[in-house]
Amino acid sequence: MPTESHRTDLDDLRDAVRGFLQVHSPSAAVRTVMETPLGHDPSVWRALAGELGIVGIAVPEEFGGAGAGMRELAVVFEEAGAALLCAPLLATAGLAVPALLASGDRAAMADLLPGIVAGSTIATVILNDALTPWDPHTVTLAARRSGDGYRVAGSVATVLDGHSADVLLVAARTDAGISLFAVAGDAPGLDRSPLAGLDRTRRTARLRFDDVPARLIGADGAAAPWLAHSYDLALVALAAEQVGAAQRCLDMAVDYAKNRIQFGRPIGSFQAIKHRCADMLVAVEGARSAALHAAAVADRPEGKDLAVAASVAKLAASDAFWQAALDNMRTHGGIGFTWEHDAHLYVRRAKTTQLMFGSPDTHALRLAALIDDPRKDTA
Length: 379
What we know:
- The protein is an alpha+beta fold.
- The protein folds into three domains: 119 residues, Orthogonal Bundle (Butyryl-Coa Dehydrogenase, subunit A, domain 1); 99 residues, Butyryl-CoA Dehydrogenase, subunit A, domain 2; 148 residues, Up-down Bundle (Butyryl-CoA Dehydrogenase, subunit A, domain 3).
- The protein has eleven helices and nine strands.
- Strands 1, 2, 3, 4, 5, 6 and 7 form a seven-stranded mixed β-sheet that branches. Strands 8-9 form a two-stranded antiparallel sheet.
- Helix 1 runs parallel beside helix 4, helix 4 packs across helix 7 and helix 8 runs antiparallel to helix 9.
- The longest helix has 36 residues.
- It is globular and about 80 Å long.
- The model has no long low-confidence stretch (mean pLDDT 93).
């Protein structure tokens, strides 16, 4: 359990991140940035790294990071989710950093992590054809030896921040098995096509690899176990983001219920609105407990039970965020359904994150399999 001083550190971190995002990612900025071709503000991204150091918060100090853990990173993702931050934070800090650290490839870490920590390198991970649960059987890209390096071929339908990433960490199948490769964003033979998605605050792209040069990360054919581990860490980060966004939806609904006058009284005094807000609170607090527990499990040296904790967190946070986003819109009534109000932005984010890396039903089935046999490495 966190000590009292650790809780104070986490509170200080939360205050710093929240204050930064209030200045750099208010609603007006989100609406402006989400319409740009890049989908994020490079100056804000560099400030997140340079001023706050949160891009590399879970990176060891020897590679320029803060040497913190998932509990600290979860705080960052909560605040980013609340603000609907338009930035490649999940792709870089939630996916790429854990994959690199899990690989054990110190040469690759020394080469790539300092740039990520400094904010000069945006990275993402391609686990399979789309943003679906990790499963070695769904890896569609293939890699072959070519001289001293490798070449990657195939296509991927959906890649998180694939249009802007400077480095792509690509899971591909070789003769030895599942391996991970680093591909430069400007590598010859790589075609990147931005996609128009439901959530306009987060970007994805379709990628095609036409015999693209790649660098092997870790041992050839040995990537499947640590990619499974990094996938679970990404689930925890995403769940924390969902909890932060769900809390913001609850806050918006409660604030409106207190101030919207109808029939001479605040609508929050009506029983139906009271029950709706109470149900939102119960769902959000339950999801927060699950996400905090998963983050604590992730920080244990042995990492035992991480798969179970991560799926519980993702399931609970997905349901809570979706409920909170819809109920926030309903509480606001007609104005909540308009483009001018921010409620619909949270609904869009709630639906896409609900499906990303596995729907609640998918994770319920995964939990059933894991509980039946904890030794199973199921997606």
